[in-house]
Structure formats: structure tokens, C-alpha cells
Predict the structure.
Amino acid sequence: MPATQPKKDERPPRAVDIARSESAKRAGVSLWFSNFAAKASAAMGSPITFLLAIGVIMVWAVTGPMYGYSDTWQLIINTGTTIVTFLMVFLIQNTQNRDAKALHLKLNELIHAGTHAHNELIDVEKLSDEELKALDQYYMRIRAECERRQPVSSNKPKKST
């Protein structure tokens, strides 16, 4: 029996399991960063981290009179917030890219599973802006046609007296 075929009482491999298996073969910096970004993003979005940030700002503000609101005192908060912001941009972008890709894959699976779905819409996000605009106009025409076909009486809610 070929290795790709499941045994009689075995489930066929799921797409997620295949992806994990392939990913494990190439585990490296990319996988490490992806895991790190997901964990860091979750930690940075927590209420405790927000309260900690407010605490740091309050400590900085309270120490202002001690340092005479000097340039160095201001530079500390400016440098700190700039560094944190700079690093968070990369973490947020990574998690947004992952979330968008996961959402597209879920939609692709739904399109693939639907019997009346247009399979050519799988990976539609990779089309050019002009192609997306044309596709949008196509579906706007379909919607307009559907609205035109609806009976007038079903569009208006009945008034209660």
C-alpha cells in the first residue's frame, strides 16, 4: 500500500497536519520569530501590560520636578517610547499578516467546499487592484440584478397599527 494512502480504519491526513509536518522540516528563525511574535503580541495586548505602561509614564511624570524637567528627562521618555513603538510595529505587522493569511485560508476552504462557489475566487487577494475593482463591479451587478428580481412587497416591512 502506498505511504500516501491511509490505512483502512485511519483518517486521511488533514491539511493542517500536513502544513505542520512540512513546517517542522524547515523549522528555523522564521518559525521562532512567528512563535515569539504571537506570544509577544498577546502579552503586549494584555491589561497588565497596559497598566504597566501607565505606571512607567506616571513614574516618569512624577520625577519631572526632581530633574527640573530637563532635556535629559524628556529624552528618556522620548527614546523609550520610540524604541518600543519601532519594535511593536514589526510584531503587530507579523501578527496581522498571519491573521490575514489564516482568514484567507479559511475563506478559501469555504469556497472550495461550497458546491455552487466559484473556485477561481480562491486566492482572490492576490489579484491586482484593477482586477479586484472589476470583480467588485461584477458582484455589484449581480446584487443589483437580485434586488431587481425581488418583489416590491417583500422589501418593505409591514406597519403595525
About this structure: The chain has two domains: 15-115, 118-150. The chain has a mean pLDDT of 83. Residues 15-115 form one domain. The first helix runs from residue 15 to 25.
